[in-house]
Write a structure and sequence with these properties.
Largest sheet: none
Number of domains: 1
Number of strands: 0
Number of helices: 18
Helix content: 55-70%
Order of helices and strands: HHHHHHHHHHHHHHHHHH
Length: 531
């Protein structure tokens, strides 16, 4: 791909004639996609740290059998809010931050399509986060029904449950507005010559993810609204005593919940598909097949929701359908893994930190994928349902999966964001510690689950002690590793460091590397011509 913008080109003269907004007004009234992307990233980092503290409190309680520090009700509040904060407050906003920063740069757009709506979509998130976390101080504490908010437990909770419902509504509205903005931007604001099948894969994965968000977030909003009316307005959607059906909620929730899993990983696939070609110094192997595989995963995600519900008493025919449909998802996912490995094959590889996280992601995500195939088999799922085997599976997908993608993208693009190079030695320390401790934390959970350890229990039988102790130590060291990342890498890189060139990576391709580092406040006022 060639463009008629020279690397290192200065900002246009008219940009210099207008003072940029400064101080708090710049952030409160932000309409520039880079500023809003930065707000999303800082918000998600704060939520990641808050969710991490809750995770460490959970592991502290589980270090030994018996109730050590917290009552079971408080323990389950930690479990519930940890899940909600990490999913809706950390992972999703982080990927939206990447989208805001990189999509306009990658397609040659001056900004996102709807700048003020972009501002509103971010500023809905801090009040939602406050609602979630403030619930701990409400009467009865936060909701303790698990992040899935299943009735009848969620119908019996105190006011903290209502705060969680309102927070989910705000976060859902934010996601829908963000998705509309991304779709409109990609379809209408591409630079001349930037055909859809020439777009960077990151843009493709986000385009498909945005359609998923628009399709499933209203379903979650409907489900939690029905919970709210069951709780306060006398309806009986999910109350069996009034003729309702608690399992109906599970169908609605997982019709949202399973596409949500791919909402949290498809943009990560896009990041990995940018990083591996750059450090292999080769074009991405099978570009078109990657696009079609992403679309296939998104489509299949709508027909597999009930594999979360094999123990609810569904007919055998339905069990067979959902079992085979779930296994089918492994095919396009396998295409992606094959293409990443084929891209590296005989490439001129160098192992800078973004590439290390990308390769580490392929390994640990494959582990999570294989345990997912096992959970698709009905007889196995019935045995390990609601055990630590399931906890191990989805943490391998979301922590070792989504989080490693985010780290790879951070190290890849942070020179473009800040104009500074990070310290490579410190970054590699972060990678190796993350890789080791994420496996020490979550791999023993497979054995706990196979031995029958239920999830969401604050106490357990003595035979599970050793694996729980190992997991808790791994979690503490993994958490300290992320604190090291924040204080030894993120903050020093933001504040200063070696000056980054416009293109710090030899093999990197794309429009974002044709502008200076840091990217100027206004980019592509004159659309580049892509040849």
């Amino acid at each position: 791909m060639s463009v008629n913008i020279l690397p290192g080109q200065d900002a246009p003269a008219h940009e210099l004639a207008h003072p940029h907004p400064r101080g708090w007004r710049r952030w409160l009234y932000a309409t520039n996609h880079k500023d809003i992307g930065t707000l999303y990233l800082w918000f998600s980092l704060a939520m990641f740290m808050a969710g991490g503290v809750l995770a460490l409190l959970i592991r502290l309680e589980l270090f030994q059998p018996g109730l050590q520090f917290f009552h079971p009700e408080v323990y389950n509040q930690f479990v519930t809010v940890h899940g909600l904060v990490m999913v809706f407050g950390a992972i999703m906003p982080a990927f939206v931050g990447f989208a805001n920063w990189m999509i306009p740069l990658q397609i040659g757009a001056a900004d996102m399509a709807f700048a003020r709506m972009n501002n509103l979509s971010f500023w809905l998130l801090p009040p939602a986060a406050l609602l979630l976390l403030a619930a701990f101080f409400s009467a009865g504490g936060a909701t303790a029904s698990g992040w899935t908010l299943y009735p009848p437990l969620s119908l019996q909770m105190g006011p903290g449950m209502d705060l969680a419902i309102f927070a989910i509504h705000l976060m859902g509205a934010s996601s829908i507005m963000g998705a509309i903005n991304i779709i409109t931007t990609i379809l209408n604001l591409r630079a001349p010559g930037m055909r859809l099948m020439k777009m960077p894969i990151f843009c493709w994965t986000w385009l498909i993810t945005a359609y998923l968000l628009i399709a499933v977030m209203p379903v979650l909003a409907a489900a939690v609204t029905m919970l709210l009316t069951d709780r306060h307005f006398g309806t009986s959607f999910f109350n069996a005593a009034g003729g309702g059906d608690p399992v109906l909620y599970q169908h609605l929730f997982w019709f949202f919940g399973h596409p949500e899993v791919y909402i949290m990983i498809l943009p990560g696939f896009g990041i990995i598909s940018q990083v591996i070609p750059a450090f292999s110094r080769k074009s991405l192997f099978g570009y078109a097949s990657m696009v079609y595989a992403t679309a296939a995963i998104a489509i299949l995600s709508f027909i597999v929701w009930a594999h979360h519900m094999f123990t609810t008493g569904m007919p055998v025919t339905a069990q067979l359908f959902f079992m085979y449909a779930t296994m089918l998802v492994a095919v396009p996912t396998g295409v992606k893994v094959f293409n990443w490995i084929a891209t590296m094959w005989r490439g001129s590889l160098t192992l800078e930190t973004p590439m290390l996280f990308a390769i580490g992601f392929i390994w640990v995500f494959t582990i999570g994928g294989l345990s997912g195939v096992l959970l698709a088999v009905v007889p196995i799922d019935v045995q390990v349902h609601d055990t630590y085997y399931v906890v191990a599976h989805f943490h391998y997908v979301l922590v070792a999966g989504s989080l490693f993608c985010l780290f790879a993208g951070f190290y890849y693009w942070v020179p473009k964001w800040t104009g500074h190079l990070y310290d490579e030695w410190r970054a590699k320390c972060h990678f190796w510690n993350s890789l080791v401790w994420v496996n020490v934390t979550f791999f023993p959970m497979h054995f706990l689950g196979l031995a029958g350890m239920p999830r969401r229990y604050a106490d357990y039988a003595a035979q599970f002690t050793d694996f729980h102790m190992l997991t808790s130590v791994g979690a503490l060291l993994f958490g300290l590793t992320q604190a090291y990342w924040l204080f030894a890498i993120v903050l020093p890189t933001v504040r200063g460091g070696d000056k980054a060139p416009a293109k710090p990576w030899d093999g990197a391709e794309g429009l974002e590397w044709t502008v200076p580092s840091p990217a100027p406040f206004h980019t592509f006022d004159i659309a580049p011509q892509v040849k």
